[in-house]
Specification:
By secondary structure, the chain is an alpha+beta fold. About 25% of the residues lie in helices and about 25% in strands. The protein has a two-stranded antiparallel ribbon with strand order 1-4.
Length: about 60
């Protein structure tokens, strides 16, 4: 699985970085997801972070 943060939608609220800092980091005022495949143990919190995003800027794909 991979995660992606749409920079056009992200408002920089840091919600995702607080929930899953292993996958999401702030770059300037926007969040970004680590590139590549997600470590399997981070998938549940990555999904939680995506669901918590107030502007639905995070997508998760297989």
């Amino acid at each position: 699985m991979k995660a992606f943060v749409d920079p056009d939608l992200c408002i920089g609220c840091t919600q995702c970085t607080g929930i899953c800092p292993e996958v999401f980091q702030m770059t300037g005022i926007l969040a970004v997801a680590v590139p590549g495949e997600l470590p399997p143990d981070t998938v549940p919190t990555t999904v939680e972070a995506a669901q918590a995003c107030p502007v639905s800027a995070i997508t998760i794909s297989e």
